[in-house]
């Protein structure tokens, strides 16, 4: 570490002129004692003192150096265990400090300054800007950054994730902002770009290849661990952090993107062009723009698309939230097509639902018509179950219900009334009453009840009782234990007084 000249001069003056001790100088100037000694030693005014004792690590320096030359990335902890096995008795913390000074450093690498032609290259990358809390969800704030390598014009767009659909959406919006695109797009080795890489052999993401085919550009990933090859976008990300995002306040992502557009079209567009301070980025872009590739006549279909299985409940789980679908599609697989505003649920090409998108979590987004249709279906299902039960024990119920349906009666109410009569009178009596009501052409529960009562009166049977009596009636009719009243009928004759003469 280089010691500032002003600090070195103060240390030397305090020691030689003011006769301060080394410890006093270190405390007052807030530096380490070794720093004070080093300054005095370099200026020929080394303080007197006892000679430094021989370091415990000295006998092992040769071994440590040879081991690090052979294994440069070996950890200090493993190296400490190795020298301890050979007799080292020092502390691990001090040993780590010594190893850091002895570890071989790679030689500094020089880089050529890369120059590009107008319209030849664009560099693209993601940048992480922290997190946003949206309801119960903590979403990452990701910045999509695109830079034209010649003019240095920058495009910035924020998203709440770095998925493939947003990656492609950022491209499209950047192309539209530049009114064109470069012939070559330079990327880092993102999963959205490179699925697999062996040396110089690259297996590209097929979605990116389809996108590149549509816009007629060449995708080119940089070499592994060679971020300097896309230094223009790296420097722009640093510029964005310091010049735009630092201390920035915003309401939501839409507000932040509006401010980013204004910044890209203003402050960032009018900054000096790095190749010539006499020109601005706006003027350099005016030179580059005619050399950009034109946009295709048709746009590219954007959106996150995936297949989702619908469970027994009519909802689709997408991005931590549940979206309703028609109940007719339960236990089936449907497609979800989502963007930043809407979530569309498709069955083939037919649209089943269209919901506003939520970036919260554990939310239920419903269409009222889906819920109402399910409720009506359940009501009809209950009626059908009742009809089946009646048809099994009293077949004449089917004919009576058909007659009632032709006349527009409420089949649910009729079915419920007939089931109550079944519980009270039994299946044989109900079957006979149903036949009589059909013969009289009166498909109504009252006609069935009258027929049941007439049949009961002819046979002299007691009136039916409800199977379930109200609780207060059951409590009132509970059997009581009677008590014998014989003891109350006895007369109490008091004993007569007797006189003893």
Helix-strand blueprint:
Blueprint: H1 5-16, H2 22-29, H3 33-42, H4 61-70, H5 76-85, H6 92-102, E1 121-134, E2 137-148, E3 154-159, H7 164-178, E4 184-187, E5 194-198, E6 201-204, H8 206-215, E7 218-221, H9 231-245, H10 253-265, E8 272-273, E9 276-280, H11 281-288, E10 304-309, E11 315-318, E12 321-324, E13 333-338, E14 342-347, E15 350-356, E16 364-365, H12 368-393, H13 396-406, H14 411-425, H15 427-439, H16 445-459, H17 471-476, H18 486-489
Parallel strand pairs: 1-4, 4-7, 12-16
Antiparallel strand pairs: 1-2, 2-3, 5-6, 8-9, 10-13, 11-12, 13-14, 14-15
Characterization of this structure:
This protein has 501 residues and is α+β, with helices and mostly antiparallel strands. It has 4 domains: 98 residues, no CATH class; 171 residues, 2-Layer Sandwich (Nucleotidyltransferase, domain 5); 63 residues, no CATH class; 100 residues, no CATH class. The chain contains 18 helices and 16 strands. The strands form 5 sheets. It has a 5-stranded mixed sheet with strand order 3-2-1-4-7, sandwiched between helices. Strands 10-13-14-15 form a 4-stranded antiparallel sheet. A 3-stranded mixed sheet has the order 11-12-16, with no helix packed on it. A hairpin with a 2-residue loop joins strand 11 and strand 12. Helix 12 runs parallel beside helix 14, helix 13 packs antiparallel against helix 14 and helix 15 packs across helix 16. It is elongated. The model has no long low-confidence stretch (mean pLDDT 85).
């Amino acid at each position: 570490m280089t010691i500032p000249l002003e600090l070195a001069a103060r240390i030397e003056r305090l020691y030689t002129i003011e006769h301060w001790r080394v410890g006093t100088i270190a405390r007052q100037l807030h530096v380490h004692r070794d720093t004070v000694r080093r300054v005095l030693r370099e200026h020929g005014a080394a303080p007197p003192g006892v000679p430094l004792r021989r370091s415990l690590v000295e006998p092992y320096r040769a071994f440590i150096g040879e081991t690090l030359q052979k294994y440069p990335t070996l950890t200090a902890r493993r190296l400490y265990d190795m020298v301890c096995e050979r007799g080292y008795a020092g502390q691990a913390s001090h040993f780590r400090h010594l190893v850091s000074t002895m570890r071989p450093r790679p030689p500094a690498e020089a880089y050529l300054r890369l120059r590009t032609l107008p319209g030849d290259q664009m560099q693209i990358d993601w940048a992480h800007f922290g997190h946003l809390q949206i309801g119960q969800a903590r979403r990452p704030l990701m910045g999509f950054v695109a830079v034209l390598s010649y003019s240095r014009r920058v495009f910035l767009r924020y998203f709440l994730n770095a998925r493939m659909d947003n990656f492609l959406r950022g491209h499209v919006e950047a192309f539209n902002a530049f009114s064109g695109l470069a012939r070559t797009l330079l990327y880092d080795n993102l999963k959205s770009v490179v699925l697999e890489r062996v040396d110089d052999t690259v297996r590209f993401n097929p979605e990116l290849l389809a996108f590149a085919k549509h816009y007629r550009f060449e995708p080119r990933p940089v070499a592994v661990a060679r971020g300097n090859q896309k230094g223009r976008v790296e420097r722009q990300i640093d510029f964005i952090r310091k010049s735009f995002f630092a201390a920035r306040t915003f309401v939501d992502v839409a507000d932040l993107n509006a401010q980013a557009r204004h910044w890209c079209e203003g402050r960032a567009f009018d900054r000096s062009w790095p190749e010539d301070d006499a020109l601005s980025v706006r003027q350099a872009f005016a030179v580059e723009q005619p050399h950009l590739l034109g946009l295709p006549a048709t746009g590219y279909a954007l959106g996150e698309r995936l297949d989702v299985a619908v469970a027994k409940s009519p909802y689709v789980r997408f991005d931590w939230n549940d979206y309703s679908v028609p109940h007719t599609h339960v236990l089936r697989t449907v497609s979800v097509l989502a963007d930043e505003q809407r979530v569309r649920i498709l069955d083939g090409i037919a649209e089943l639902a269209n919901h506003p998108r939520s970036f919260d979590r554990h939310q239920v987004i419903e269409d009222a018509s889906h819920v109402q249709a399910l409720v009506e279906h359940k009501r009809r299902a209950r009626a059908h179950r009742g009809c089946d039960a009646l048809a099994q024990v009293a077949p004449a119920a089917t004919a009576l219900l058909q007659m009632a349906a032709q006349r527009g009666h409420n089949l649910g109410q009729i079915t419920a009334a007939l089931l109550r009569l079944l519980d009270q009178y039994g299946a044989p009596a109900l079957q006979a009453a149903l036949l009589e009501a059909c013969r009289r052409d009166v498909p109504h529960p009252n006609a069935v009840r009258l027929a049941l009562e007439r049949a009961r009166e002819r046979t002299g049977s007691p009136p039916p009782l409800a199977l379930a009596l109200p609780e207060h009636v059951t409590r009132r009719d509970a059997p009581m234990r009677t008590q014998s009243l014989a003891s109350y009928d006895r007369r109490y004759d008091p004993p007569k007084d007797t006189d003893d003469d």
